[in-house]
Design the sequence.
């Protein structure tokens, strides 16, 4: 398997089919193949050698798509940069991976001097925006126009496809090395599930393309040879507009994006009937949000995917049928390319229903962490990726994640899982979105604390919320305090940054603030 | 990817789901996992070591299924033997591959002494039938009952999964080395096509399980976790009975089997409404047979797969929609795991519509031929498998095979492709099945000659046939002679053995017989 294979096939079978739509730019499969062959030629001309890393720091665009194809075509290695990072973090990841060539768009061009401060080895910058050329940068379109097209190196199989720095919410970034086979295995498994893609259909990239969640959608869509629509970044109106205008069939969202779409005041003005599949990740969806989403997207099947960058990224899926059956607290079952086991600290499989560490095996398990053999050896043992996530499996193989992002609250000696409380809180009609964390409490050690965005025009008291929650969950799990906010802090991929919420209450060593 | 992965997943997610049905034996996913772990233990106990080849010579059965899983579980390598071969050919393939352990069923136990004559190194024979134990053989069920279950070696990825001797209709058998990844790539691509498998559905093995065509169906069905029904061998009534009794959803056939089913006098007595997918290979289907098959299997989508053992085995597919559109002469388009190019003798891609050699690239291309590095180097160049099949590609990427089995007739200096003539001949209402070959002719060099099985009660003259054919194809392509037969010679996989038909007219050096 190789990333460029789908491009060859699309150009062969549907040369005049539309491959990318980005703003007013529309390109056919044949055009994209030609442009990719030229961009790859340009990369070689600027000195990119076999296996060299080439980074991109950009909002979503059709040029991002071309970058993802031209780099392996040129026998080089991808390095998509997390767009939420500081110049110091970006500089670190470029330095760590020895990346000398960077594509940057208008949104991030102003960061270049600061990035250079942290990474003196940045040799070549290619400007993939439409605005003014940053000083010292080469123009993307000039390069494509001037370069000689080259033959596809057909880099593939076990060859390194990319170094993907984990932009997780905890810990120091590590470069996850994924092969073409890793990425292809996960994408093929996604397609084989039948949940996500329609041959010849249209996929919308509104989640950031640097992240492997959207990348999985990108690669699956490439395999089935459909059309990619890109908007620069998630925004409710831009997303709704793109769906209506381009009759989008599938997209990747995170629950907080789904909530923002379905609760948008203008949502009823848009024709969203074309959406057949919504894939979401990063966190479970609440029943309340799902119920609203099912009304807004009447033709859609909803699928949750669970995984991580190290799994390229899909391990389990919860498909549309399970959503209709209301099995929303599960992250789904191992998909066709993936084997999942819950193990104890000795690596022994635990009994069903018992919490342990989620481990995963298959062709999608990463090659390792860049330059970190020790970390690799700890994470991947006998072929099993140790995810660091706690969870249990039921008798039918459904995986339940109970400790996502270390998300357990210990209150009065009892373990309280935030996901369960969040699900109860989200069911209150006044709640548009919420996060539940543990905060310091003299009496309970930790106290269950709810942070809530209210629905338009609604109000909420802690008493009302507790009363509602206690109809659904045990009293000790119901929130004891409430904070109403206008917005929740989210990561570049739409994960709610509970760390940021907790930081008001706890210091970095886990002790109470003041 | 590894062959046993689907077994683990099925046992994890549906422990009490039915995995195999063979005669009156019905086994659950949990039972099969347990039996496979024991059979693997038994193989190690009888001395099978890492990477050792273990062969099977057997009709279809649930034990064949267990063999396919237990061998990699034991960290060994499969070697399924062509059941149509002579003892000399079988002995050759076992000797060539250094196979010391053989499973044999009742149908082939009598061949053991003759096989031993050709392969003195056959150390251990395991009897997987239900009849009397052959002399010196170990009993399969005794081994399973007595052995300690072992941990799955999880042999996978680039590890050798099996040596599959090509049972083609020409040339000397070669052992095709396929990795788990090769087989998994092709199977995953088959599932991803969406044409063939229904999660939780039932697949019937009536084509021989030693052949990779049925193997592809077996592996795909394993990936989606459904039920396998085995009948010992293809027989119209047994097949129809199994479909009705087990509400079979999918199966793999070859066109001659489809023809035998749909023309069977008792076909209307069976309820075949459960069949949703019929995959066929080896040769194209005629419009006439397809039209009858669509009536007999009203709920079925028909899919042609083209490939070869060296491609593990799928390269292109012609899906149900193309069948409904009548595009029957094409072998379909490259599927999601496969890249296909038509090249000239220099390896340069030819223009669309121009005949050249079909070449294929992807994760499904074999590791190579066992102990034949020279043959491997000739077949696989720069990652491209050179199939030896001639064909062309149209503007939409559809592949047309014009020279399958060197199947071109040169008559009066004109090239005549048998497939085209066969399609015309098959459309005559008196024709149940046919093959068209070139035979020596003083006037024309070669003469287009039709060999026909008549429909029940029908008669046919060469004049009637020519008149009909000329309404569809040029006069020089219409058959000039006709032979009515009761049966056509077919290979173990149902391919019509044109070589055998030609042998009456040509000697082995291509010269006219007498």
Sequence:
């Amino acid at each position: 398997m190789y990333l460029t294979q789908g491009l060859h096939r699309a150009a062969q079978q549907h040369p005049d089919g539309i491959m990318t739509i980005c703003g007013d730019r529309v390109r056919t499969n044949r055009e994209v193949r030609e442009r990719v062959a030229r961009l790859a030629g340009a990369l070689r001309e600027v000195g990119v050698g076999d296996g060299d890393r080439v980074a991109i720091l950009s909002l979503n665009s059709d040029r991002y798509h071309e970058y993802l194809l031209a780099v392996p075509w040129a026998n080089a290695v991808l390095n998509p940069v997390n767009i939420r990072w500081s110049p110091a973090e970006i500089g670190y990841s470029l330095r760590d991976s020895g990346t000398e060539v960077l594509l940057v768009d208008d949104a991030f061009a102003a960061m270049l001097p600061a990035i250079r401060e942290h990474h003196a080895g940045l040799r070549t910058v290619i400007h993939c925006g439409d605005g003014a050329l940053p000083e010292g940068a080469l123009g993307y379109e000039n390069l494509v126009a001037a370069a000689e097209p080259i033959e596809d190196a057909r880099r593939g199989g076990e060859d390194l496809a990319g170094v993907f720095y984990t932009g997780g919410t905890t810990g120091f970034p590590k470069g996850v090395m994924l092969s073409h086979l890793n990425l292809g295995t996960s994408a093929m498994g996604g397609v084989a599930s039948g949940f996500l893609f329609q041959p010849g259909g249209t996929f919308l990239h509104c989640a950031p393309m640097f992240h492997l969640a959207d990348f999985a959608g990108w690669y699956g869509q490439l395999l089935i040879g459909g059309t990619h629509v890109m908007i620069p970044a998630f925004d409710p109106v831009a997303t709704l507009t793109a769906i209506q205008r381009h009759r989008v069939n599938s997209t990747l969202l995170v629950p907080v994006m789904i909530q923002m779409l379905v609760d948008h005041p203008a949502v009823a003005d848009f024709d969203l009937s074309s959406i057949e599949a919504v894939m979401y990740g990063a966190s479970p969806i609440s029943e309340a949000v799902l119920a609203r989403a099912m009304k807004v997207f009447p033709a859609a099947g909803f699928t949750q995917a669970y995984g991580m960058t190290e799994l390229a990224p899909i391990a389990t899926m919860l498909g549309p049928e399970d959503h209709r059956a209301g099995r929303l607290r599960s992250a789904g079952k191992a998909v066709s390319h993936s084997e999942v086991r819950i193990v104890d600290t000795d690596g022994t499989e635990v009994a069903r229903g018992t919490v342990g560490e989620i481990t995963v095996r298959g062709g999608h398990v990463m090659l390792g962490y860049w330059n970190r053999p020790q970390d690799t050896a700890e994470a991947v043992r006998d072929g099993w990726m140790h995810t660091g996530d706690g969870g249990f499996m039921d008798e039918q193989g459904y995986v339940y994640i109970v400790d996502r992002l270390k998300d357990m609250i210990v209150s009065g000696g009892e373990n309280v899982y935030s996901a369960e409380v969040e699900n109860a809180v989200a069911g209150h009609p006044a709640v548009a979105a919420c996060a539940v964390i543990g905060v310091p409490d003299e009496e309970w050690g930790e106290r269950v604390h709810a942070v809530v965005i209210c629905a338009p025009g609604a109000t909420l008291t802690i008493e009302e919320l507790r009363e509602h929650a206690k109809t659904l969950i045990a009293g000790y799990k119901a929130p004891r305090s409430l904070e109403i906010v206008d917005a929740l802090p989210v990561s570049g991929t739409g994960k709610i940054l509970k760390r940021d919420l907790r930081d008001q209450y706890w210091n970095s060593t886990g002790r109470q603030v003041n």
